[in-house]
Each structure stands twice: as structure tokens, then as C-alpha cells.
Amino acid sequence: MSLSVITTADFAHLNGKQKAAILMLAVGRDQASKILKFLHEDEIRDISIAMAGLGLVKAEIVEAVCNEFTRNFESSEGLVGTYETTEELLRKALPEDQVEKIMDEIRGPAGRTMWDKLGNVQEAVLANYLRNEYSQTAAVILTRLQPAHAARVLALLPEDYATDVMMRILHMETVQREVLDSVEATLRSEFISTLGRSAKRDSYELLAEVFNNFDRKTETRLMDSMDKRNHDDMEKVKALMFTFEDIKRLPHEALMRVVAEVDREKLPLALKGASETVRKMFLQCMSKRAGSILLEEIRALGPVRVKDADAAQVEIVTVIKNMANAGEIDLAENGGNDEIIP
């Protein structure tokens, strides 16, 4: 059987695996064996398959591959690894769908830490995993998720178990070694390195945000359960919560700013399930014509699911809390202590 021949004209069409295979052959068996020891089993297999299919490689191709490899190390500033250069390299070596999968895993959604990536896991999948884990392990994981995601996961857990997890969140101190071992069994090792560096969030504030993201039924169910377990703890959480009905606490000027920022398409649905007091407060922040249009939009909605109205309200509460965090409004303006300290 005749061997295929790789010539100079073929260089531009060589993929990364083939170039790696040529480089391995060029450096010789002894050096190649040392390099292979540092590669993953899948990488060794891929290079081996490429090597077996090379056939006869012309000397000029070997030289071109070696020169390209050398040029990558010629810069006086060394190598620069970025998301862009990584993606470019992968696209030359792997199929498109595999590159997308790897880059999605590297980048994650909004953040760059591996805990941010855990936020990509569907709540049903994560809840099913947590059901079989210690409640302390679940607490460690949920404290590193966004409150909205943590709320959706907790809502899918059995009531007693979810209550136990939330109690552990409230009273969590240093993370014990055995908890880390349990987490490490499923999550990547680099996740663990972020545990010691991440700033500890106030547990009551965290759980208050989680409750803000529950639907009404879940909120009532778990709030009652936690209140029975520890009334004082639940009262502290309640004091830190800000719900849609708490908009009544906002002064007119602050609510005017909120109305200017919220999604107008969500407002009718959110107000559909609001009290008359809150609805009037929003209307007072609008012109008569705009208020009439809003009321007509609310009436036009007809019957709506409580779940949908709750979701719209949560979005508006999120806008309010973001504005408060940015210092644009003060959530305690009407709810603070008015006493003066001399």
C-alpha cells in the first residue's frame, strides 16, 4: 500500500493535531516520550491518530512546522494567552461544535470564575444533585450562586431539606474540610481555590435576597417553616427583605426615578397583581394620559397567572435594588429610625 505524501502545498490545510504529530516525530522518540507524559489521555490519542495517518511528510513541511513552533516563542515579551487566542487555536484543531463547548465552559456566562459557571446548571439538575448531598454541602454551593438561581433551586427541594439548608446558610462559619471533599467530588478542583478568596457575604442579607426571588407560594411555605424552626432568625431575614409591596416605603421622588428605569412592558403585568395602594403610587408618578394608558393595559391583560405577575414584580424589585446599590435611591428613607443622636 502506497503512503500519502504531504507537500508544501498542503501546509495551509494541516490542523493542530497533525502539526503536533509532525513536531513529535521531528523531535525524536526520547523527547517525544517526555512530552507525552504531560498530556492528557485524550490528547495523546488524538495526536497518535493524526500521526498514524500522516504518511510521508516532506522535509520542507517538517521545517515549516518547526519554524512556526519556534516563532511562537520568539517574542521578547513572551507568550500572551487570551480568550481570543485560545479560541483561534482551538478552531484550527477541533470541530466547530467542540470548540463552542470548550469556550462556553472556559468563559462562563457573566463572570469568569468557575462558581459563575455553576450558575449555568439548570435548577432542576442542580436540585436533583443536592437532594443526595449533605445540607451543609448544598449550603456551600447555594451561597455562591446568584440569589435568583438559589431561590429556584431551593423551591424544588423538599421543604424540610430546604429549611435545613437555609438554616445552615444563616449559621455557616468556616467551611469544613469534609464539606469541601464532598463538593470536590463533582465540581472541578479549581472551584475549591475560590472558596478561601471569596468574600463572605452576610448570611441574613443573602437569604433575604433569596426570599425576594421566591414566588408567593414558595415564600409563604418556606417562611412559615423557617419561622417554626427559629423565629428570631426569620424575623432578621424579614427585616432585610424588600418585596414589591415594600414599594409603599419609597418616597415619591425615589419612585419617580424607579418608574423612569423599569421596563414599561413589564409594568402592567406587575401591577395586575399589586395592591391598590402600590398601583396608585405608580400612577401618581405619571401624567394623566400615561396613567390612563397603563390602566387600560392592565385591564386588557385579562386573567393572568400569579406566577407570571410575580416574575414581573421580581424584575422591578431587582431594578429597585440595583438602583439602591448604586446609591441612586435609598430603600430606608421612609423606613429608618428618625431619632436624632445628639
TrEMBL record:
Give the InterPro entries listed for this entry. Flg_Motor_Flig (IPR000090), Flg_Motor_Flig_C (IPR023087), FliG_a-hlx (IPR011002), FliG_M (IPR032779), FliG_N (IPR028263)
The compartments listed are: Bacterial flagellum basal body; Cell inner membrane; Cell membrane
This protein's GO cellular component annotations are: bacterial-type flagellum basal body; plasma membrane
User: What are the BP-aspect GO terms?
Assistant: bacterial-type flagellum-dependent cell motility; chemotaxis
Q: Which residues cross the membrane?
A: none
Could you tell me the keywords of this UniProt record? Answer: Bacterial flagellum, Cell inner membrane, Cell membrane, Cell projection, Chemotaxis, Cilium, Flagellar rotation, Flagellum, Membrane
Per UniProt, residues of the Flagellar motor switch protein FliG N-terminal domain are 14-115
Q: Which GO terms describe its molecular function?
A: cytoskeletal motor activity
Principal subcellular localization: other
Domain Flagellar motor switch protein FliG middle: start-end pairs: 125-195
Is the keyword 4Fe-4S assigned to this protein? no
Per the record's keyword annotation, is Nucleotidyltransferase included, yes or no? Answer: no
How the protein sits in the membrane? Peripheral membrane protein
Boundaries of each Flagellar motor switch protein FliG C-terminal domain copy? Answer: 225-331
**What exactly does this protein do?**
FliG is one of three proteins (FliG, FliN, FliM) that forms the rotor-mounted switch complex (C ring), located at the base of the basal body. This complex interacts with the CheY and CheZ chemotaxis proteins, in addition to contacting components of the motor that determine the direction of flagellar rotation.
Say which family it is in: Belongs to the FliG family.
Q: What is this protein called?
A: Flagellar motor switch protein FliG
Q: What is the lineage of its organism?
A: Bacteria, Pseudomonadati, Pseudomonadota, Alphaproteobacteria, Acetobacterales
Gene assigned in the entry: fliG
